[in-house]
Amino acid sequence: MNRVYNFSAGPSMLPLPVLEKAASELVNYGESGMSVMEMSHRSPVYDAIIKNAEAKLRELMNIPDNYKVLFLQGGASTQFSAVPLNLIGRTGKADYIVSGQFSGKAFKEAQKMGYDVKCIATSKDTNFDRIPTVTKDMIRGDTAYLHICFNNTIYGTKYPEIPDTGDVPLVADMSSCIISEPVDVSKFGVIYAGAQKNMAPAGLTVVIVRDDLLEYCDPKAPTMLEWKTMAENGSMYNTPPCYPIYIAGLVYEWILGIGGLEEMKRRNVEKAELLYNYLDSQSYYIAPVLKSSRSMMNVTFVTGDAELDSKFAKDASKAGLVNLKGHRSVGGMRASIYNAMPKEGVAALVKFMDEFAKANPKA
Ligand SMILES: *Cc1c(COP(=O)(O)O)cnc(C)c1O
After folding, report:
1. Tens place of pLDDT for every residue, the chain, 363 residues?
2. Is 148 in the pocket of ligand 1 (CB under 6 A)?
3. Cystine design at 216: which of 90, 100, 188, 221 (Cβ 3.0–4.6 Å)?
4. Ligand 1: distance of its center to the CA of 194 in Å?
């Protein structure tokens, strides 16, 4: 069977050249005589792999020197606990914006610890079809940080710009948009992301943290969740997710090779426009997200008829366009068009959508 166009929200497509390179090195990496999967994480050859991955990510995202890059395990969801544990000590309070399911989970996790946590804005009452408007005066002046989810994977929304928090550190879950376009890292206190959307196979979580924010960890925090301990040990306090880190390094090199994040953005904008322009040009499908909040990575749409939605996903699969079913909590369809999705995949989807609409008129 040929490779399909995989619109999965995560784990998701990886760039074919990366998979091919990994395959060519699978059983014998360089001169090592073994697979990366079989190596000691303390060996010189693996040390070069993790250092290269970090260096390439720093180059790609233009990460300032006063930020640490951590390669961790536990997924973005573990960071929902790690963020309050590491930062609450700054002032004892934390503010959150709830713009979807993951930011809601992050908020609940901080609440669960009994800290003074406040949701300062939410778009729940419009079923998360937009990013809530936030002005600086809504943020508590003495909050330890403001937490946001920069791209809402399930609903298909994204912050149109980075909120201005003044001196308050901004913490962003960027699991589903990291390295899709350039971002000014210096505007954030912390950026974190599960790797399985845009960077690597599942098992790796990347945390980028400004080094002055490493000093506030709750002394009761589990050692494994202390960013400072992980930073001081070069992400090797324990065994890191060795193989996903190696793949992440290859993915960073692939993006640098095509021209970096400016070129990545150009390609992603082109793909997203192809799909949104089609959605805006017809009336069979409805795109529920407010235009100003649209995500470039996750595009949601519905027919308005649950049976047609379900038929759509099934028929699309048969045509080699897989994983288009929306998240189980919202239904409809979702096309995740991360970095590795080629333009041809999106063009094939648009063509399929048009044919499906003609072949399946609404009652
Ligand atoms: C997928 C996702 C998560 C959950 O990630 P895990 O690695 O499964 O814990 C959290 N936040 C966002 C924005 C996501 O897209």
Report:
1. 789 999 999 999 999 999 999 999 999 999 999 999 999 999 999 999 999 999 999 999 999 999 999 999 999 999 999 999 999 999 999 999 999 999 999 999 999 999 999 999 999 999 999 999 999 999 999 999 999 999 999 999 999 999 999 999 999 999 999 999 999 999 999 999 999 999 999 999 999 999 999 999 999 999 999 999 999 999 999 999 999 999 999 999 999 999 999 999 999 999 999 999 999 999 999 999 999 999 999 999 999 999 999 999 999 999 999 999 999 888 899 999 999 999 999 999 999 999 999 999 988
2. no
3. 90
4. 6
Q: What residue spans in the chain does CATH classification 3.90.1150.10 cover?
A: 5-15+260-359
Report pTM: 0.98
Given the CA of residue 152, which atom of ligand 1 is nearest to it? 13
Q: Is the bond into 11 cis (omega within 30 degrees of 0)?
A: yes
Pocket flag, ligand 1, residue 72 (CB < 6 Å): no
**Of 317, 198, 192, residue with least CA distance to 267:** 198
Hey, which CATH number is domain 5-15+260-359, 3.40.1390.30, 3.40.50.2000, 3.90.1150.10, 3.30.10.20?
Answer: 3.90.1150.10
Distance in Å, CA 186 to ligand 1 centroid:
23
27-257: CATH topology is Aspartate Aminotransferase; domain 2 (3.40.640)
Are 67 and 227 spatial neighbours (Cβ–Cβ below 8 Å)? no
- Closest residue by CA, ligand 1 atom 10: 76
Strand partners, 70: 207
- Measuring from atom 8 of ligand 1, which residue has the nearest CA? 75
